Amino acid sequence: MKTEATATSDDGSDGHDEEEEEQTMVVDEMLRRHVGEFGPWQLRHFGLTNLAWILNAFHTMVMVFADREPDWRCRAGPGCVPGSVEGVCGLEPGTWEWVGGSSTVAEWGLVCGEKYKVGLAQSAFFAGSMIGAGIFRHRSDSSLGRKGTLTAACIANGFFSLSTSLSPFYWAYATLRFLTGLATGCVGLTAFVLATELVGPSMRGAVGMTSFYFFSVGCVFLSGLAYAFPSWRNLYMVTSLPSLVFAFAILLPFIWESPRWTDKAMHTMRAIAKGNGFSIPNKTSLILDIPSLSPSSSTPSPSILDVARSPFTRPRLLLAVLINFLTSVVYYGLTLNVVNLGKSHLRLNVALNAVAKLPGYAAAALLLDRCGRCPVSAGTMWLGGVACTVGSLVTIVGTRMACGVVGIFAMATTYHLLMVYVAELFPTAVRNVSLRCVMQAGQLGGMAAPLVVVLGRGLPFAVFGACAVMVGAAALYLPEMADRPLYDTLLGMEWGESKLEGG
Hints:
Layout: E1 23-25, H1 27-35, H2 40-49, H3 51-66, E2 71-74, E3 96-99, H4 104-108, H5 116-141, H6 145-164, H7 170-196, H8 201-210, H9 213-228, H10 232-254, H11 265-275, E4 284-286, H12 304-309, H13 314-336, H14 346-371, H15 373-393, H16 397-425, H17 428-453, H18 459-475, H19 490-502
Parallel strand pairs: 1-4
Antiparallel strand pairs: 2-3
Helix pairs in contact: 1-11, 2-7, 3-7, 3-9, 3-10, 5-6, 5-7, 5-17, 6-7, 6-10, 7-17, 8-14, 8-16, 9-14, 13-16, 13-17, 13-18, 14-15, 14-16, 15-16, 15-18, 16-17
Membrane topology: Multi-pass membrane protein
InterPro entries: MFS_dom (IPR020846), MFS_sugar_transport-like (IPR005828), MFS_trans_sf (IPR036259), Sugar_transporter_CS (IPR005829)
GO molecular function: symporter activity
């Protein structure tokens, strides 16, 4: 389709006018032809939006340091054996003491018969994340939009996390962790959708994988903060304030709503084009996949039931839910399992795990389009499964730690690759609701992970290895989405997929 611009003279008077041809196009086509798929505007917006992932890492991983079991030592008195295999269990009160900073375990005695409470509080956070994802998913696709949802979640995160630092007793702490999880459950996913929906199709996979570097950077920063603030209460305080600063100083003034879900779509697209040094012809407008619809059309919001009814999306949804549940058990389990790999270097272990994820993201970004989503997903899952299985069979701490690093490298790649993959499996109209359903399954897996970790020794690795092998096999049944368009509606996807299968 060719468009001729109207000519004007230098003094502003009309010269030889050539009538512009009216044209309509979907978002992806406009990004390719007139706006730029990933120019300076998108780069700035992408970087600012994904700062939310750093905050997500703070609120999710702070439990590793706050709920750690510190070292202990014997005091004067009989009956205390330094370095006992059973730890402090069975020792008489007053014969030993905690050393090496404060934690919830030390403050409230969460050891021996009370150790389950550590896993319970951590599971409460993931339970909140699962429920919060359900609460916020419709708001993101309707009244609040992507930007409004992310802003509200960050404010709630900051408030509840700050309140956690003041917890007077264990049950108040567990409740506040649940409430923090309510907000945290939607932060990363909403930031991911908001950042990538503004990127053109040829760059979306690679750019989407880059989002997850921010989470790893957040884990490294958190390790430094844990060193500077060894008190668990102070650590909660300093990790809560950045969420409030981000919401009011960055999100509200600088982040734009996605043009795929706003009645000011053309205004947004023109702003992106201008920031990238391009311009959109005057008589150009946006449509969705179905020509009778536009981004501002008044149509009922699709629900997860629509996804389940469609013969194209139903098997994708069921497989994605199963895969993300088991992947999350392994991913969060390996992340939290650093507490079983030696107390003396906990901060270093967390930082190493975070750094181990970075090469995986880069490899996945390079291989996504070359090898396809399905082979890369299955391959990384099986690599993690082998590493975890070996870790369950060895007893040397250093070897088991190495297996954990390889496992977290593979499963972090898988976990975040799934977000790119799943986002492509569903059209725009139901993308957020589908992603949130899948992520809720992942958060259910996150609830199970701490309960596996408290088993201790080699048992967690055995469970993680079995889960990883199973999800690798399940991933082979997902359709390959490389080089396929990002559809806007269910009808558009059904029509497009039918044409692809028939052709």
